[in-house]
Inverse folding.
C-alpha cells in the first residue's frame, strides 16, 4: 500500500511548522525523512499517521482518504513515536499482550512478533531492565502487532550504540520487504544505510525527494536548479528542456531540475518559460551531493 500526501500544512499559533508538503511513497521500501531539529519531521509524520489533524491538505493510504475514513486507516498504520512511552514496570510479554488486546489480535501473534523483533531472550524482563536498543524493539513490536501495511518510525535509531544500530537497521530492512516505511532522522548516515529514497525537509518545506542512487549520482557534479514559476505546469512541457535529465515537483509551481551530466540548463530553462508562457519567479543553482545538500540545510 502506497502513501500520497497532498499539500499538508500545519501551524502552531503564528508558527508555520509544515508548509504545503506533497509527495508519494510507493508500496514497499523505506522513505527517509531527513531534516535538522525543528524542521517539521515529527509534525509531518504525525499528520501522515492520522494522529494530528492538518490545517490543510490530504493523506491517502492507497486510495483511502485517511481523514474521511479514520477507523479504516488506523488498521493500516503502525507508528513508533520519537519518545516511546513504555511502562517501565511491565514485562516485555505483558506490554505486548496489553496492546494485542487493544488491537484484538491473538496471543500466538504476540509470540510471533516477539521472535520477529528479536526479543525472544528478553521477553521475561521488565522494560526498565532493557537497553535502549531493546526498548526500541519493543516499540517496533507494538507498532507491527496488527500487521499494518504502513509503518511510520520517528527517529527509531537515534542514540543507539553501533551494535544495536546494525540489528535495528536489519530489522527495518526486513520489514520493508512487505511494508511501506517512513523513517525520520536528523543524521544523514543513518538514513543512507536504511532508506531507498530520501526526502529532505527544512523549515517545514520539502527541499528534495529522490532515490539515494540518483542523489549520489548527482555527486558527479551535475547541475541542479530549483525554479519557481507563477503557475502549475504539466510535467510533459518540461521535456522541451533538452539539457534536463529529469525533474521533480517540490510544491505547486516549485520544481527541482537535474541536468544531464556536464550540461548547463540555465538558458534552456529561460527559453522554455518564454515558450510555455509562464513567469520564472526564481531560479537558483543548488549544490549537488547528498552530503553537501544536507550540510547546507543543517548549518
Ligand atoms: N505542540 C507544539 N506547539 C507549538 N510549536 C510546536 C509544537 N510541536 C512542534 N512545534 C514547533 O514546530 C516546529 C517543527 O517541530 P517538529 O517537532 O515537527 O520538528 P522535528 O523536525 O521533528 O524536530 P526534532 O528533530 O527536533 O524532533 C518546531 O519549530 C517546533 O518548535
Amino acid at each position: 500500500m502506497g502513501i500520497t500526501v497532498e499539500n499538508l500544512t500545519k501551524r502552531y499559533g503564528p508558527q508555520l511548522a509544515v508548509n504545503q508538503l506533497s509527495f508519494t511513497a510507493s508500496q514497499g521500501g523505506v522513505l527517509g525523512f531527513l531534516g535538522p531539529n525543528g524542521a517539521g519531521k515529527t509534525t509531518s509524520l504525525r499528520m501522515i499517521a492520522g494522529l494530528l489533524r492538518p490545517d490543510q491538505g490530504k493523506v491517502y493510504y492507497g486510495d483511502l482518504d485517511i481523514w474521511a475514513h479514520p477507523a479504516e486507516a488506523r488498521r493500516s498504520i503502525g507508528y513508533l513515536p520519537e519518545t516511546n512511552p513504555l511502562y517501565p514496570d511491565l514485562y516485555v510479554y505483558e506490554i505486548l499482550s496489553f496492546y494485542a488486546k487493544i488491537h484484538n489480535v491473538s496471543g500466538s501473534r504476540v509470540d510471533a512478533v516477539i521472535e520477529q523483533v528479536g526479543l525472544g531472550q528478553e521477553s521475561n524482563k521488565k522494560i526498565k531492565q532493557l537497553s535502549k536498543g531493546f526498548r526500541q524493539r519493543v516499540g517496533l513490536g507494538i507498532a507491527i502487532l496488527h500487521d499494518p501495511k504502513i509503518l511510520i518510525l520517528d527517529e527509531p535509531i537515534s542514540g543507539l550504540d553501533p551494535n544495536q544500530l546494525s540489528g535495528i537497521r536489519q530489522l527495518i530492512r526486513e520489514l520493508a520487504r512487505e511494508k511501506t516505511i517512513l523513517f525520520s532522522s536528523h543524521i544523514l548516515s543513518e538514513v543512507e544505510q536504511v532508506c531507498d529514497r530520501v526526502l529532505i525537509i527544512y523549515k517545514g518545506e520539502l527541499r528534495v525527494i529522490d532515490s539515494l542512487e540518483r542523489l549520489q549520482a548527482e555527486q558527479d557534479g551535475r547541475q541542479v536548479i530549483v525554479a519557481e514559476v507563477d503557475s502549475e505546469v504539466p510535467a510533459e512541457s518540461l521535456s522541451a528542456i533538452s539539457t534536463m535529465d529529469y525533474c521533480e515537483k517540490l510544491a505547486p509551481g516549485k520544481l527541482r531540475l537535474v541536468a544531464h551530466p556536464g550540461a548547463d540548463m540555465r538558458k534552456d530553462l529561460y527559453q522554455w518559460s518564454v515558450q510555455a508562457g509562464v513567469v520564472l519567479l526564481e531560479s537558483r543553482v543548488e549544490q549537488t551531493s547528498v552530503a553537501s545538500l544536507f550540510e547546507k540545510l543543517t548549518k
Q: What stands out?
A: The first strand starts at residue 3 and ends at 12. The two ends are 36 Å apart (CA to CA).
